[in-house]
Records
---
Amino acid sequence: MNVLLTPDSIRPCGDHAVLVDLGTQDRRRALDAALQASPPTGLVDLVPALQTLLLTFATEAHRADAVARLRSIDVDALPVTAPDAGQPIDITVHYNGPDLADVAAHLGIVPAEVVRRHTAQLWTVDFAGFMPGFGYLTGDAGGLDVPRLATPRTRVPAGSVALAGSFTGVYPSPSPGGWRIIGTTDAVLFDADRTPPALLSPGRRVRFVEGPR
Amino acid sequence: MSRALRVDRPGVLTLIQDLGRPGHARLGVTASGAWDRAALTLANRLLGNAEGAAGLEVLLGGLSLTALQPIMVALTGAEAPLLVDGRPAAQYAPVALPQGSRLDLGTPTRGLRCYLAVRGGLDGRRVFGSLSSDPTTGLGPAPLASGAELVVGSDVAGPLGDTDLASGRRGLDELVLRVALGPRDDWFTPEAIDLLDTATWEVLQASDRVGTRLSGPTLTRVRQDELPSEGLMRGAVQVPADGQPLVFGPDHPTTGGYPVIACVLRNDADALSQAVPGTRVRFAVRRP
């Protein structure tokens, strides 16, 4: 059955942008890949998040044309995007984070099992956001779902490796944050002078490797 | 390319800004750029520069510069006293700075942010194609500091311009911002939507280039569940848990997890750049 994008799933953002709510991560990934492969005329930014895509345009007319095109796309007929064919990158983590014990207690396991689950699975950068170079990574095995801290920290150091919801992420630079910190890495997550600037761009696959504490 | 201006006093916060670095939001990189885009582009037109040439965004005046070579400048945006070697000079017009002369910019009498363009535009190291300074993430050049020397480029499009029609909305006591509902207006009560269209809010002191915080009637939600983070844009009117709206500015985060009830139309989104704390803000909902 064809499930076209309904007007309800294409939501206005001012006069130059639309938010497309795909309802599921898989549908969002499929449309993101299709729009990257064939961008609408006048597209300035395409911002993926969990189940949505934000599209901003150079002009209102570009937006109108793109909305007409979006309404004709059968998202469920789009090819399911294959994971990034490139080799996963290794990120060495010192599992010494201040929340490691709390995370283990929350999950009913010992801290060493948190480390095992974090290092044993293959993670994929699902989308980026929050700050330059911050990626939201989803794992292929799960088992590390924890809520955010009730009260965010006012300062999380750069290189903090953390968990929230079903995601893991690494803070590229110091910032306030509510994710639970399980370790630190020396990896440089973002460098505007590097190509590519972000280590964890959407689609990138990652393995975390345990380093000395 | 040469060192043309020395910073003697930087003022409260003076940033190099052009029209920003759009196109990298999927990496978490926000566009930044001049908040009052009309003011920066007007200053550039007055000098015959390309519209998007980099200039200075000066918050609350207090800037003093010395010209290290003869140079033309133009001041737009907030109304503020401009002195060259102690003598008043015109705003909204090209002004010649002789070599060794001193420029002093006083505190604005209307509005918050002045834009000082120089003929040729400022030059420097571009990050994602832009000279804009984003003090929140540290991308781009640092805020101006005493003793810094500014490099002038060759971003000239033509001869000096005529005095142009100046935007008349800087520092108004009350702003009316046109908005389009959505993307998450259905998360709010019908009463909240009515309030958005009719009530008045006040600009709070705790506002900056990330966002303008407003105080007024509470916008009540019909849904209390958590919204997964989604893309944000300049002009988005986000409503955090306390029901007091926040309008995102040029240094907004690229994603956020509170519902956006409406977005300010592009041509109205920059007016908040000049809104002093206490300015009254109303929203006019544009019906489709």
---
Amino acid sequence: MNAEPFDASANRPGSPEQPGQEDSAFGRLPLLIGEREYGTLSAHTTCFAYAIATWCFLTGGFVADLVGAVQGAVCLIAGNLIGIFITTMALGLGCQRYGIEQMDCCKPAFGQRGVKIPLLFYLINMLGWSGLLLVMFGNGIHNILGALGYETGQWVVGAGVAFGLGLTYLIVTHGVHWLSVSNSIITPGLGILIAFMFYTLVHDYGWDVIAAAPPLDPGPKPLTNYVIAIELGIASGISWWGGVGFLARNTRSQRNAIYPEIIQLGFFGSVACCIGLFSALVVQTNDPTEWMVPLGGVVMGILALLFVALANVTSTAVSVFASGLAMRHIKMFRATPWWQLMLLLIVPCLPFVFWPADLFRLGDAFLAYNGTMYAPISGILFADYFFLRKQKLNLRALFEDDPSGEYYFHRGYNWLALGSLLLGQILYILLYNPYTGESHPIAEFAPASVASCLIAAVAYGVSMRVLNHHESARAPAGPDARGRRRLISPNV
Amino acid sequence: MGATSERPLPRSEMSDQRRASFEEQADRERLVGDLERRIEELEGLDESEIGGFTALDWFFCIMGSVILPAIALWWFAG
């Protein structure tokens, strides 16, 4: 999704243990093995903490529009696992092997400047989820007031979004340390809330009622609904693209870079989505803030709503904070004061203040659009890392801005990768248009994101082999007086 | 505006600016030096030091994340 996972320690005060450690852990320098935080247990617990978040409710709610409980659960779990696999393998192993940030891991394919395209998608992903979570925050306020007997208009939702944006801005500019405290409360709290919801659903309604509940807003053809639900499940896994590199970079072994992401983000994350799906089907609305009172009663419902509202603001703050760090990849924003950068990132979320209901209705389209953005990128990275470069990157060239660098390509852009990305996106839209909801009959045999990933991978792999064989023969940067190769124009 | 910006800076301001510029340059050199050191260390890492990802791992991941989910999706399509 989603927010690049926020590591509480990334903002801790105090001096680093050795010079440069702060620049590597909190910046772009490659992390040495000894500096990485996650062993097996901590990798699993961290991934679990990221997997259990309020956007799981949103995803489950979107799938409930199309299919019932059984098909929906299969689409969510199987789709998520496939999506995570597509996203994780190349990025996870590459970032772990070299201790690099994921935008740097994209440079061998996209080029030093071409990487701005995945970066733009990353920002769209982060800010889109932020907006949806803030609408959920606004809906939460509206429903709390409703449960307390105050009849309010829909303007309260927009005002809630504005209030949430204000809180987010305060947190990311003045109280980032507060996130680490709140995250240590919110993750276990959300786990308890999800367990409570599951208990209530099974105890008060029973599996028969859940399984028999009709989808909320299905299209005329059941198979098409199922195919779109699969697409949403895969897109849900793929939209972790923004976070997998960060997690993998901080792990000490290759297995720890992959298994926790598949098991926790892929499996347990989708189980949490299923609770959202079941709740939406039983209560017959896809707005998670309308589930709590019917499921838990007024008191428990209001407490749950307050808790979800808090979780939404902190998740938004994490997304905006991570987006700010990503913006530092762009030269013109490297020296921009942090508060200005944060203000700049708040601006694209403002439409959610004025049109919260309309934009929330586009949430499923946005979720699927994550597949449009990241499925072809994942295919290109897969072909590049495993088939073209045989898992060997030129680490020095990742940090070399000089045109002689191996990953500089043509004026900093690898047009073959960008062309393959465009091809993959066009195919995706032809098979499934997230905005109109129309899908091509071929999509019944090959989900749009899988087809888009494969076509981009093949187009990129073949075109690089045929047209770009001379690039690898570029001369590396020259040696210094002691015979070592030196960076000519380091981009840190 | 233009006249103001062309006004010669007082000696103390000039030295402050120079000092800041030297410090920035020193910071940058330290950063690049650290980057070079890290690159050498990571490029010299043996595969065993980062923990292997074997053919068996690939088998488990492909089975668990692709083949079985695809079968489940196909099974429940009807």
